[in-house]
Amino acid sequence: MQLSEQEIIRRKKLDDLRAMGIDPYPADLYPVSHTSKQLKEDFEEGKKVIVAGRLMSVKVQGKASFASLQDSEGRIQLYFNRDEICPGEDKTKYNDVFKKLLDFGDFIGVEGELFTTKVGEKTIMVKDFSMLSKALRPLPLPKEKDGVIYDAFTDPEQRYRMRYVDLVVNPKVKDVFVKRTKIMSTIRDFYNDMEFLEVETPILQSIPGGAAARPFVTHHNALNIPLYLRIANELYLKRLIVGGFDGVYEFAKDFRNEGMDRTHNPEFTVMEMYAAYKDYNWMMDTTEKLLEKVAMNLHGTSEVELDGKIINYKAPYKRIGILDAIKEHTGHDLYGKSEDEIREACKAEGVEVDNTMGIGKMIDELFGEKCEHHYVQPTFIIDYPVEMSPLTKKHRSKPGLTERFELLVNGKELANAYSELNDPIDQRERFEDQLKLSEKGDDEAMFIDHDFLRALEYGMPPTSGIGIGIDRLTMFMTNTASIQDVLFFPQMKPERKHVELSENEKAIFEILKKEKNIQLTSLKETVGLSNKGWDKGIKGLTKHGLVKVAKVDDILMVELQD
Which ranges form a coiled coil (predicted)? Predict the structure, then answer.
């Protein structure tokens, strides 16, 4: 392992501490009495306190120094005085341990008394300190000069890959995750007050049912069978309704082997809830109350800023049929139309379709491209065609449609809900229709779950169910643009092995990071290296696999590699 100069120095300090008889990683309990937030909120001059956290800054002024300590609640100022810490003749603990062997990022414990500085800063007068954990890597702390911040830890890939560092050096990041937990607690309290039961269902499933999505596949060695990471927990929760529960809900990790972007991660959290003897009209009313409560608990108002807009979660929300929405925004009336007629309507609107797509998928594409973005305020898109909703009860008064809704906010889906299909014969036929789509090449079509059909044959009462994406709800409620910012550890591409670049390679690489793809002659001219320096630089980057040089229409292009 190749160490940087800073890492070598820190390891030397580690050895020096041990040589002095100081354990840099003690096992003892440290008796913390207060957090930084508690001290500031309930400040009392002269109070004796014990705190612990990371040393984040130090300003040495001879035999006295100021420092800042960061714990889980924030920061507080420390005042180190040599004679307070070392009242006797031996000043080693201040002169050597504090001034020479402590580094930014080290965990220390502090015992002292509260006082207020001349400028009004609430501070701890340190009487003693203890080493709790030595940090062997330096934190990427930002620097400030003349009011300008330099070297801030802002690179998204590094932030998501090293969230543990991101949380330390960008403390405001933590606020989103605190709010995420509050959102989930509010939902849990809401359903618990309705006397619904929180449950757990299998993640490893023999049939990946409950949604139209491509699953992850694994293998169980002892049983010698393939298993799938669940794409939804719907079918198991409905089995519990069959079993006699009137209301169940689950916060579930689901997995879909599909693309990744700013709003999709292959592993995500969903809350699904099922209520016996209810329908989708009741579910819309209940969902309005739930989201209004979430907004109020989080912000104290039903109005929440999102992407430069004010979203109002106060009930009631607009309700419009999906085919009515398509007619309103494209002029095409697709009610009762054949597959060929719908395909022609899609082509007329410039929506890409192919022969593997059935009626449901084509309507979904058309609505997604031409209508979805119009619905900024919370809107229930209702009454989906049967072909789009294989698990949904047919509409009681509109032939060919189902009692289903999707809740859109800011042009994106937040929730999906039905009056659940409980006719086992109808359900079997719908599954068989999905099988036909699979045979046509639709790799997201549903499997036939024979055990679920058997459960329905024992009888399921009229039921309504809903799924709400917790990651997306957190994005909406915290004005966050990327799903990676509401996940502690989002899925990332494999980390590249660190490569030390020469000065010539760095010069070329920095330009390519901005341009991504550029003519070789233009790049060479822009970087301004000598012919020899250019040759060494571009060859080195190619060897490292960081760039690719290729001929496009007789022009040499240089492309940055992901």
Answer: none
CA distance readout (Å), 155 to 160, 166, 168, 451, 561: 9, 10, 15, 48, 17
Cβ distance 342 to 330 under 8 Å? Answer: no
For 238-294, the pLDDT digits (tens) are: 999 999 999 999 999 999 999 888 889 999 999 999 999 999 999 999 999 999 999
Q: How far apart are CA 241 and CA 459, in angstroms?
A: 9
Nearest partner of 125 among 181, 64, 189, judged by Cα: 64
Q: Would the annotation count 413 as a binding residue? A: yes
- Angle of helix 503-515 relative to helix 531-543, nearest 10 degrees, comes to 70
Structural domains in the chain, CATH included, are: 5-139 (2.40.50.140), 174-317+377-485 (3.30.930.10), 503-560 (1.10.10.10)
Residue with tokens 């594409």: 365
CB distance 453 to 426 below 8 Å: no
Written as six digits, the tokens of 376 are: 């900024």
Question: Is the separation of the CB atoms in 483 and 475 below 8 Å?
Answer: yes
Q: Tell how strand 247-255 and strand 217-220 pair up.
A: unpaired
Measured CA to CA, the distance from residue 98 to residue 327 in angstroms comes to 73
pLDDT reported for residue 165 = 96
Query: Whole-number mean pLDDT of the chain?
Result: 93
Where the chain has pLDDT below 50, the residues are none
| CA neighbor of 506 nearest in space, from 488, 468, 533 | 533
Q: Is 525 annotated as a binding residue?
A: no
CB 460 within 8 A of CB 420: yes
